Amino acid sequence: MSSPSMLRLRRHALAAAVLCLIAAPAFADERVDLSGLKADAPVDGFLVSYAGDAPKAAAFQRDLDIALRSLGRKDLKIQHTRTISTGAELIEVNRALDVVEAATLMKSIAADPRVRFVEPNARFQALLTPNDPLYSQQWGLSGTYGIRANTAWDNGYQGQGKIIAVVDTGITDHPDLLANRTSPLGYDFISNATTANDGNGRDSDPHDPGDWTTAGQCGLGQPARNSSWHGTHVSGIAAGVTNNSTGIAGTAFQAKILSARVLGRCGGTLADIADAITWASGGTVSGVPAVGANKATVINMSLGGGGACSASSAMQVAITGAVSRGVTVVVAAGNSNADASGFQPASCANVINVGATTSAGVRASFSNYGSLVDVAAPGQTILSTLNAGTTSPGAFNYVNYNGTSMAAPFVAGVVALMQSKPGADLTPAQVEATIKNTASPFASPQSPSLGTGIVNADAATDATP
Length: 465
Fold this sequence. Notes:
The protein is α/β, with parallel strands linked by helices. Helices cover 27% and strands 18% of the residues.
């Protein structure tokens, strides 16, 4: 078995053991605080409060040595360090203890009837309130029915070392994205030069030239449309640069964005999208350089079309291939106020299918729904990075968009936060199960159904071994 696997098993065992210790009647003692013990936060000190005066130094050390013997470890030493301002006694051990050792020692100390309370000398971190001036408008990150990303950030989970592939319209040179893009940026998979709107077919430049159309260009009766800069907006939600005194904050702001351009004028084709999924997940696409070190941790697809996803369809085969390579695939449920079973990739297997909620914690009126939706995320009045150009790129700006397209990258960002914890990455199945099992409840029961709840970054990262 590989060393990462052994480490993961040990973490599972430690977490299970401490839960058993906390839950067992013998440990149901109000004088011992086990709530702050975590498998990924070893403890090397404790605070002991006495009901009366603390024992004299020699007697105190003797009592501590007796308590230490409960661990049966001759390599450990324990000592009284000082009395702190509250009157509690700080004691320290010569090496960090895991959760089981710490809990055992704390109970042994508390066996002395003179002890009033024992708690870990826990470590605290600076709380991150991003200095991005528009952060206060991003209810989806930290609002009452947001994803609670800020708490996950405070625990140190910020997406570091992970890559989010955004399969979309490409990306623009927005200052709130520049520092978080991979090098190279990604790939343009649009094979039709007219649709691509950049003068050629496939190439190594995923910049978004604009997807504007004239009236009737995409079908009889279709109106003219300005460029959407959709991929830029999605990218900002997933991993916009944060704490840079500029604009907005991104969900997994220490992750990198890999751009796979598949949508141009009039949308994109199944063939191009399937190739992009394969490539971003580390698979082989003829004529396209391998993604190499920029292989995605998670793929976000805020796109959709009609029809059910069958086991033999190109979309499903590409997704199955990505999942087999260890890459989680997140998709938007769709904006037709209909059952997601009639749309793809929302109806494909082995994806995390995301519906949209409002700031009131209920389904957005446009969001698709049904048994195939796994979880929900904020999708109405979502502020993110954009471009002011009506056709070709202009000045950068920030705009509110609505849609399950906005909900999906919140979840993709949470996946990156989860996988940024130390140790081997979870499998896509483990990621999906964890996200579904830790979701926050809706403001009220949702009918039609919209998954297990609203994605909760704090709970999902806490539940990740």
